[in-house]
Write a structure and sequence with these properties.
Elements: E1 19-21, E2 24-29, E3 35-36, H1 38-51, E4 55-58, E5 64-69, H2 74-82, E6 97-99, H3 113-124, E7 138-141, E8 154-158, E9 163-168, E10 171-178, H4 182-196, E11 223-226, E12 232-236, E13 242-244, H5 245-251, E14 254-256, E15 262-264, E16 284-286, H6 300-307, E17 317-320, E18 334-339, E19 342-347
Parallel strand pairs: 6-7, 7-8, 16-17, 17-18
Antiparallel strand pairs: 1-2, 2-5, 3-14, 4-5, 4-13, 8-9, 9-10, 11-12, 12-15, 14-15, 18-19
Helix pairs in contact: 1-5, 3-4
Keywords: 4Fe-4S, Heme, Iron, Iron-sulfur, Metal-binding, Oxidoreductase
InterPro entries: NIR_SIR_4Fe-4S, NiRdtase/SiRdtase_haem-b_fer, Nit/Sulf_reduc_fer-like_dom_sf, NO2/SO3_Rdtase_4Fe4S_sf
GO molecular function, one term: precorrin-3B synthase activity
Length: about 350
C-alpha cells in the first residue's frame, strides 16, 4: 500500500499548537506511560480549574486533554513545565508512549516503568525525532499483551523475563532484543520510519510484509486488585472519560490507561471513578459532541448518559457526533453515529 498523498501536515494538538474547538482551545498533555505523580495531578487540576473547563479529559493513548482554554497558552505551558510535564517543548507532540499500566504493580513478565522513562529521555535527546508525526506511537508491553494490542507504530513486548519481540503496527518483526536493548531497538525503528514514511503518519500506512499478531489481552479490569507486594490498588473509569479537577486532586498519584480508565496504585479510595465492574453503561464512550464541537450533530454526551442505565456493563458502545468518530475505541463496539434524523446504529 502506497503512503496516502496528503497535502496538509499532521495537526495533532499539543500545548503550543492547540486545537481550536467551539468551546475554546484544546490542549493535549502527553504522559509517558500514563504516569502522573501526586504533584503533577495537583498541577493538572489547577490548570483545569483556573484556565479550562474544570475537568481533565482522558484520551485513548493514556494522555489527558484540557478544554475551554484561551488561545494564549503561555501560562499553561509555564505551569506544566514547572510540574515536569513539558520537559522538551520541541518534542511535546511526539512524546506518545504507551506502557502496561499495571507493570511493576501486579502481573507481567518484566517491569517497564523505568524503561518508559528511559525511552522518553532518548526521544527528547534526539532533535531529529521532533519531526515524527504527532500520531506516531511507541509502546512497551510487559508481556501481558495489553498495550501491544493497541497497534502502536513501534512496540517492544516481553516474551519472558529477559527477552522481548519488536513489533511494527502490532505485528511481529521477528526481531528479539533484551529489555536493556528495547529503547535502542525502538529508536532504530523510529529512525527508519522517518527515512521512508513520505506523507504517511503511521507505520500501518506503509507497504510492509504482513507479520504475525501475538495474542493480546483486554485492558486493565475495573475494580480492586491485589498488588504483588500484598498491598491493594484499584482501577476505575470516570464517566465518559471526564474527570473533575477536584477528583483528580483527591486521587493523587495515578496511571492513566489507554482505555480511559485510571489505576490508583495504592488504596481503594477513588473519587470520581466507577470501580464496580458490573456498573451499567461502563462500556459507553463518546466524543465531546455539542456544544464543544461545531461539527457535531448532537449533544452525544447527554444522549449517552441517558442510555447508560439500560446498557449492561459488558456492552462496548461509542457515540459520535459526526463521521470523524473522534475517540472511538480500537476494540469491536456498537457504533452510534448522530445524523440529521437521529442515530445510525452499526458495528465497528
Amino acid at each position: 500500500m502506497a503512503p496516502p498523498a496528503r497535502v496538509r501536515p499532521d495537526a495533532c494538538p499539543g500545548v503550543f499548537a492547540t486545537h481550536d474547538a467551539a468551546d475554546g482551545a484544546l490542549a493535549r498533555i502527553r504522559l509517558p506511560g500514563g504516569r502522573v505523580s501526586a504533584q503533577q495531578a495537583e498541577a493538572l487540576a489547577g490548570c483545569a480549574e483556573d484556565l479550562g473547563d474544570g475537568s481533565v479529559h482522558l484520551t485513548s493513548r493514556g494522555n489527558v486533554q484540557l478544554r475551554g482554554l484561551s488561545r494564549d497558552t503561555g501560562e499553561l505551558a509555564a505551569r506544566l513545565t514547572a510540574a515536569g510535564l513539558l520537559p522538551a517543548p520541541a518534542h511535546e507532540r511526539v512524546r506518545n508512549y504507551l506502557a502496561s499500566p499495571l507493570s511493576g504493580l501486579t502481573g507481567g513478565l518484566v517491569d517497564v516503568r523505568e524503561t518508559v522513562l528511559e525511552l522518553d529521555r532518548a526521544v527528547c535527546a534526539r532533535p531529529w525525532l521532533a519531526a515524527l508525526p504527532g500520531r506516531f506511537l511507541f509502546a512497551l508491553d510487559d508481556g501481558r499483551g495489553d498495550v501491544s494490542g493497541e497497534d502502536a507504530d513501534v512496540c517492544w513486548r516481553a516474551l519472558d523475563s529477559s527477552t522481548g519481540a519488536v513489533l511494527l503496527a502490532g505485528r511481529d518483526t521477528g526481531e528479539r532484543v533484551p529489555l536493556a536493548g528495547a529503547v535502542d531497538a525502538l529508536m532504530r525503528k523510529a529512525a527508519w520510519f522517518l527515512e521512508v514514511h513520505g506523507s504517511a503518519w503511521r507505520v500501518r500506512e506503509l507497504d510492509l510484509p504482513a507479520g504475525e499478531r501475538l495474542p493480546s489481552s483486554p485492558g486493565v479490569p475495573i475494580g480492586v486488585f491485589t498488588r504483588d507486594d500484598g498491598r491493594t490498588g484499584v482501577c476505575g473509569a470516570p464517566v465518559l472519560g471526564q474527570l473533575a479537577a477536584a477528583d483528580l486532586r483527591a486521587l493523587g498519584e495515578i496511571v492513566v490507561t489507554p482505555w480511559r480508565s485510571v489505576v490508583v496504585p495504592l488504596g481503594t479510595d477513588a473519587p470520581g471513578l466507577v470501580t464496580d465492574p458490573a456498573a451499567p453503561g461502563l462500556g459507553i464512550s463518546a466524543c465531546i459532541g455539542r456544544p464543544g464541537c461545531a461539527k457535531s450533530r448532537a449533544d452525544v454526551r447527554a444522549d449517552a448518559r441517558a442510555i447508560m442505565p439500560r446498557v449492561p456493563a459488558g456492552v462496548r458502545m461509542h457515540f459520535s457526533g459526526c463521521a470523524r468518530r473522534c475517540g472511538r475505541p480500537h476494540e469491536p463496539h456498537v457504533d452510534m453515529l448522530a445524523g440529521s434524523e437521529g442515530y445510525q446504529k452499526g458495528t465497528a
